[in-house]
Design goal:
Layout: H1 2-9, E1 12-18, H2 25-35, H3 44-50, H4 56-66, H5 73-89, E2 92-99, H6 101-105, H7 111-129, E3 132-140, H8 145-154, E4 164-168, H9 180-188, E5 192-197, H10 203-213, E6 217-220, H11 228-237, E7 240-243, H12 245-250, H13 262-267, E8 271-274, H14 279-282, H15 286-297, H16 301-313, H17 319-324
Parallel strand pairs: 1-2, 2-3, 3-4, 4-5, 5-6, 6-7, 7-8
Helix pairs in contact: 5-7
Bound molecules: 6-chloro-9H-purine (ES4) and zinc ion.
The site of 6-chloro-9H-purine has 11 residues, from helix 4.
């Protein structure tokens, strides 16, 4: 339709994408076969049927199990290339890929295999598809502070090719404060900072991400809206929120897309962006999500333009590069 071509034609950046969450069931089977790994599903349909979640942890258990088929740098390369091709079709011209090294190193997969596979796909995506990208290395917050420090040490040889660190996995019970020292160490190494906060966790976790981690972005941030002072502060500081509406629906952060607060966020002056989070698990890539929120919340074209602009100004691109995309 007219609207679909408007959305795909709008240049967009994706700021909140777990690359392991882009692993589609078809590729999962292919990699399982390639690597001689058995998976607990008989068919692609069976895999998709298992993607019925009632909260974040429910999803994470299945997501970490799915990542078990990833073994070699070729696997990471192929997964990322599949994402880039799909994102290019939706008009994504810049993508900031989160990856979870601990999900792999804890299974004995060398850090080098993970990152070199991703970096080679990023290079190929730029030359073949014209998509620029950068890497955000995420620490798993259900693991220890020491484990996060070990991960930062493993990344030492690649720090010039890692733009930022992030914080993901099970939120409640693992507050940002647990990672204050490792985020300070990452910052001292010149890395930029983001963290998941306020997806399932309370507004206090968003305050902690700001004050104790000193993040430049908040991933999700939905529950910040429960606190008027926090909402006003995020707006005043121009803090980017990387919101993931379809993820919020699938993980029951919202009960219906018609109750999604994306337009309320924009109305409160928050710098919200729209992202896919784990598109293979949540049933949609970026254009699907723009379309879904437009339909569910009655967003106007100017709102979609605003969201797309926010995705560049909120990116980790150097200011002049981001401005050139507007
Ligand atoms: C995630 Cl939606 C979400 N939240 C927290 N951690 C994650 N890892 C992958 N997707
Ligand atoms: Zn996420």
């Amino acid at each position: 339709t007219d609207f679909d071509s408007f959305i795909t034609g709008l240049p967009k950046a994706e700021l909140h994408l777990h690359i392991e969450g882009s692993l589609e069931p078809e590729l999962m089977f292919e990699l399982a076969h390639r690597n001689g790994v058995t998976i607990p599903y008989g068919s692609v349909e069976e895999v998709r049927a298992a993607y019925d979640f009632s909260n974040l942890q429910d999803f994470l258990d299945i997501y970490y199990a799915g990542a078990n088929v990833l073994r070699t740098r070729a696997d990471f390369h192929d997964m990322a290339m599949a994402y880039f091709r799909r994102a290019a079709r939706d008009g994504v011209i810049h993508a900031e890929l989160m990856f979870d090294p601990q999900t792999h190193t804890d299974r004995g997969i060398p850090f080098e295999e993970v990152i070199e596979g991703l970096l080679s796909a990023m290079k190929q995506a730029e030359t073949e598809l014209g998509i620029t990208s950068l890497l955000i290395m995420s620490f798993l917050r259900h693991l220890s502070e020491d484990a996060a420090f070990e991960t930062l040490a493993m990344a030492e040889l690649w720090l010039d090719r890692i733009t930022a660190v992030g914080l993901d996995s099970s939120e409640v019970g693992h507050p940002p404060s647990k990672f204050a020292r490792v985020f300070a160490a990452a910052r001292a190494k010149g890395l930029r900072l983001t963290a998941h906060a306020g997806e399932e966790g309370p507004p206090d976790y968003v305050y902690q991400a700001l004050d104790q981690l000193q993040v430049e972005r908040i991933d999700h941030g939905n529950r910040a809206l429960e606190d008027a002072d926090l909402t006003a502060r995020l707006a005043a500081e121009g803090m980017t929120l990387t919101v993931c509406p379809l993820s919020n629906l699938k993980l029951c952060v919202v009960d219906d897309l018609q109750h999604h607060p994306i337009d309320r966020m924009l109305g409160e002056g928050l710098k919200a962006t729209i992202n896919s989070d784990d598109p293979a698990y949540f049933g949609g890539y970026i254009a699907d999500i723009y379309r879904a929120v437009m339909e569910a919340r009655g967003l106007a074209r100017e709102d979609l333009v605003k969201l797309a602009r926010n995705s560049f100004t909120g990116s980790f691109l150097p200011r002049e590069k981001a401005d050139a995309c507007l």
